[in-house]
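I hope you will forgive my troubling you with a question about protein structure. The matter concerns a single protein, recorded as an amino acid sequence and a row of backbone structure tokens. Please examine both parts with care and let me know of anything in them that strikes you as inconsistent. Thank you for your consideration; the sequence and its tokens are set out here:
***
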Amino acid sequence: MKCVCPECGHEFEVSQFSDESSPLRAARREKGITIKEAADALGISPWTVRDLERGKMNPRLSVVKAACKLYGKSVDVLFPEPAEGDESEEEVDFESLAETVVVEK
């Protein structure tokens, strides 16, 4: 699924990563926290954290925001743009969402 941020136009897709290349997993490991600790901080189950890191599901906007805050990284780091030639069929329209993703440094 391709997602587009309404503020910056950044496109990202979670499912483009293998289990080991996931920026979410790398950020969690860099922070030195377990899947359970990440799940508690993000307000989701450990199984959901695992599936997000493996690219098996796409996060809700609230989880994207919480992950950016937890890991201290921007959305474009945690959810990089899809590779060239990626033909994702579904696009999320973030303009219809009231909240936007902002990381304060």
